[in-house]
User: Fold these one by one.
Assistant:
Number 1:
Amino acid sequence: MSETIKIAIGSIVVGIVVLGLKTLAWWMTGSVALLSDALESTVNVATAFAALIAIQVAARPADQNHPYGHHKAEFFSAVLEGVMIIVAALLILREAWHGLQNPVPLDAPLEGLLVNALASVLNAVWCWVLIRRGKVLGSPALVADGHHLLTDVFSSLGVAIGVLLAVVTGWAILDPILAVLVALNILWAGFRVVVRSLSGLMDEAVSDETLDEIRDVISQSAEGAIEVHDLRTRHAGPRTFIDFHMVVDGQTTVSDAHAICDRVERALIAALPEAQITIHVEPEEKAKHSGVLVL
């Protein structure tokens, strides 16, 4: 079992525990804001299951129907997560609307807040694990799940402050007002998750930093070539796809040109272990006098 799948299973376990704690906090207090916090946790559990399925699909090797692999499955999971975050925000707005129409005093708020705080600490630790390891493992699903939980942590902090204010001031209406603010924050977070995930589905190029690294590696390892142009990149989960045209002297033998390609591929894979590289060799009359300078 890969580390990515283990972490995805861990997200399900953590999500269920946090959901139980937040539901208990809502039951103890009757707070609409704490109910909104618990509703978001139901989404956490659902998306954790979706992420696990997507990661398992993405790990499948390439086959006849999917010669480039199944890596994009994780982007579908991340899009689903963003959509479900938005749905959770709308559910919270619905509960907040009922609370605004009929605000009620809170019961046992301090005890409930302590239970909710325990859930938030657990979420904070786990979202750090998800974002950190998700980036290392090149897993969009884990990173998206981590950013979602981070939003949940900030929302829970805001809820705690608002509920305390409602108790101290005696203004029960602060509770549903805070729930509205939490919902709007969650709505924005869901929108950002969807946008980030769609960029991967649309074959967005790698970051400028990674592109500069690719250019440097090609420049330093393509000795024997004249130039490299039409460099293109895209990413899908942990896999980075790189293709370009490499111009060589017209008298270069196929064997020598192949040796140059092998050297460049080894250097790129050393820098980006999950890279998949396609090189089109051209004679010198095809040179465009642009692109990557070969040292």
Number 2:
Amino acid sequence: MNSPASSSGGATAAAAALDAAALRADFPLLSGRPAEDPLIYLDSAATAQRPQAVIDAEIDYLVRANAAVHRGAHMLAADATELFEDARATVAGFVGAEAEQLVWTSGATAGVNLVAYAIGNATAGRGAPAGTRFALRPGDEIVVTESEHHANLIPWQELAARTGAVLRHIPVREDGTLDLDAAADLLGPRTRIVAFPHVSNVLGIVNPVDRIVALAREAGALTVLDACQSAPHLPLDLPATGVDLAVFSGHKMLGPNAIGGLYGRADVLDALPPFLTGGSMITTVTLDQAEYLPPPQRFEAGTQPVSQAIGLAAAVRYLARVGMPAVHAHESALERRMRDGLREIPGIRLLGDAEGVDRVALASFEVEGVHAHDAGQFLDSRGIAVRVGHHCAAPLHRRFGMTASVRASAALYTTDADVDAFLDAVAGIRPFFGEV
């Protein structure tokens, strides 16, 4: 499912409803800086800034209701449990899901690992009989894309190594789009898992989820979606995409660190065996065996990230109040401004500069004759924070013949003036290093 289509007039109206300069007042790190130490924050794809409402929600919980959830019989524990489960329902609703379809994790990386290890446990014969549908045999195939973040690549490499499965990948074309013709040839009767990003964290391109899901369904494969770079920027209805499982990360969507979500179709979560085991995820335990709770608690062993979950719920309420269509429209305008400006600067090579595709406000580029780290330091000296390196996507950079790039990524609090200052600074990089 691609980002929602809209007419240019509708997008303009939605964008007009979002005043990024006014929203900045809600973000202490952005609004409280002295004039002599300005900050243009263009690293939101790595970690987004948090509004005061998120900070307040965590502090309020810790001050008024801090207790172990799902455990104590006292009133404080009951209050904490209610807040924790209300947060689950709030975050699940934000992505179109029911509360029981959302498993709390420490982040998207933990979510992918949970799924990979659960499938490994099913392969080893653990869990309910329904879990045998996920068991892998030597020669079965796990398909990813050439554009994966390492978090949606290495867990599958490890699962393949443990089970004898074969890891294959959908190639990326020169313009950054996925080669779906190659994907159609690649997926077949041995394909068991298809894992792919909704949005590339390097290219910013919104991948055609509906087409990939259709190919996977035809092959009878399980689909796993990395929604880290879409959940903060696009209206998202995970059940409507048709994916079986999806992960997202709180700190990229205005929320706290160490919290994320694993969405799953009810029948898929019901069939998966647990990964981590221990307290809070069991019904009956003897010295010889244990029986497990249904999802989502089956996958939530041990002490839970309660304040973080409450903070993430506050973050998605903030995003919902602003309106995700307005966020997407505002950031689409920023993306066009950024990309058009970078194209005009001599010596700049944009990665994945495809035309006519949906995008989020993210651009990665190479500066001719200047290493990405040097370019990043130059921008930092002018108060502009960007990401440099391979962005946990080394194979994708290798595909484009480079080891590192500069990545600028915007969010709802980014202004036109921020983008213009960034472009002006980028234009000065090569002259500063004597490359012009």
Number 3:
Amino acid sequence: MSAPSREFDLEAIRADFPILSRMLDPDTPMIYLDGGATSQRPRPVIDAEVAYLTHDNAAVKRGAHRMAGAATDAYEGARERVADFLGAPSPDEVVFTRNATEALNLVAHSLGSGDDSTPDHLRVREGDEILVTEMEHHANLVPWQELARRTGAHLRWIPMADDFTLDLTELSSLVTERTRVIAFTHQSNVLGTINPVERLVEAARSVDALTVLDAAQSAPHMPFDVTALGVDLVALSGHKMLGPTGIGVLWGRFELLAQMPPFLTGGSMIEMVQMEHSTYAEPPARFEAGTPPISQAVGLAAACDYLDALGMNRIAAHEQALTQQALTGLAGIDGVRIIGPAASAQRTGAVSFDIAGRHPHDVGQVLDSLGLEVRVGHHCAWPLHRRFGLHGTTRASFSVHTTAAEVEAFVSGVAHTVEFFGSFS
């Protein structure tokens, strides 16, 4: 069940985040602009995890005592809450993982480890093709590279266009009868580009290929419904959506999960064990070997409550306005090159830039001296940066608690950084 709605009062929202009052030194308040890497947690999320740990902490499932029952109820209740947040038809389609990276590895490993009992569309074999994009985070690239290496499949990719969107002009030739998987990010963690899910799903369905969506950057920032998107499998991370670290989600259509072999094996994911062989439980237990991240799941459910109460449409509008403000401000600074599309409904969230002749690590240090906490480097997207001739970029990413005044301070900080470096030229 969704959380009751609340007013989108930015001052009240900021009061929910204890860490935002931190001073980096006596004269420097913190301006946190790195939510794309790890978001901060509001008090309700912190309180939910603490309440579980101080009241219900126990091993889930199988225990006959009341504490085990309470812990199991909390854990499975969190699954139901996450399913509701994602628009999933059933909580049995929600698998808890450590993060989006593990969720994507789970899928890639499973598709390469089936046997003759596994349906053909869930087995990647020699000569098959896996299609990704040139803008992928390493988490949605390296697992597919490894799957291709293990199986003899061919890895192909959709290239980037010069306007920082996908070049889909050759999509019909990239998607062939040998394509088994199309894996792509919903929103680029570097560019802010929102990819055309409907068109890619349509291309995959034309050849009965699976679609795997990396939603780590999109699910926390916009209305998100797995049923409406039409994809087959989705990965996301709790720590990017105001939740704890150590918790992620793989959502998949139940009929697919029920036919996929497990990724990790051991306790909790079995149906029956003999010395010679074992059989495996139905999803989601099949993919949750060992002791799961219980308190983290409880915290993630609270994060879903928090986001839903604010309203995903209002969050998206707020962050898009901040993105427009940042792009307009940066465009007026000589020597700054924005790495990403122009402001539109198809880009939001992350604003990356390059200062000519300056390493992003140096840029980040100057901004940090002003209290501006941004991300620097290649952001786990080396191929994307190479495509545009960059060693790295500096990235600001906005959240529900970011203010227009903070974005103004960011733009001013970048202008100051350019002037600072210019004084050494």
Number 4:
Amino acid sequence: MTTELPLLATPAHGVPPLVDSSAEFSAACDELAHGTGPIAIDAERASGIRYGQRAFLVQLRRSSAGTILLDSEVLEDLSPLNTAFGGDEWVIHSVTQDLPCLQERGMRPELLFDTELAARILGWDKFGLAAVAERTLGVRLAKEHSAADWSKRPLPKEWLNYAALDVEVLLPIRDILHEALIEADKWEFARQEFEHLLDFQPKHFAEPWRRTHGLTKLKSRKDIAKVRELWTARDEMASETDIAPSRVLRDRDLVALAQSRVHSSDDIMATWPKLSRADSGRLFRAYRKATRLTVDELPARKEANAVVSRTPFSHTDIKDRVAALKAAMAELAEEHAIPHDVLLQPAIVKALGAQSRVDVEEFLVGRGARQWQVELSAPVLRRTIETLPTA
């Protein structure tokens, strides 16, 4: 019978008060500046509830400074923390998730340690914070507030308790993962990845409306235009009211509306009664605008900024080449116990499959592969390409 791990229910030194004034923030920065070593950092958003991905709460912990909880929505500019931290390492679980919202508040790291990515490089199957805490510290974390509305004020005491625990475990987890990476001879891999993450920026889409779920089902350019205009109207409405766009109308409803043949805002309200008359009218005007576009004004079926690479291979040949390269990379990933998408981004492997007579190392570097990825992947990819038919 498996013994259940103990639940980490409360922070070791209690739940600190929420810092929500300039004076308290200055005092917190001074405490952190006098702390030592890495800084554990976490952020809580209100994804699916509020517009955008901004941080409503930022949690910090540093040796000799303790845990500090910041009301980042009130404080807004957190850039003084950069000076308080100096050049010391930031420890974050999933940098790609949290760094953008921290950057929005003016925070800029000089060194990073991503505990989620470290666990993935080690080949761990489960790499969420709770799973990593169980494996490294032998404790369970309660995650019942992970999807809470962190824009709520005042924040309940139990939510602050949860938030404080997330950063309390990060520093000891970091030390254990660091040792494990060294023992596995993977520390250099992780170090290069962490350095690369310093410049991380969320992917920018020239036509973000094309990310609408279900859009690919539409074949008519007129219907695609309707989705574009409806998406734009919905996004403006969501931004103005600070709610997630899906709370105005879900993606599947946008697509359904684009395919429908409505004649007035009343028709929209009849199908989606949760919409106000004003919102229904705004969406109908967007719908009607799309129906009045000329052929030249209609959007293309494919993304406007999509890059079409010249290749001497047919579509079928490319598909076969990519399959062979992916199979070779899967074997290499298994050999090193590193997920294939960490070993080398799938998009790079796919792009390489369309190339003829290419210098593999130069191609990988040009696509942003790190040195450790090039050293491991290039020989395997080169040998695989040599076995494939030439153009």
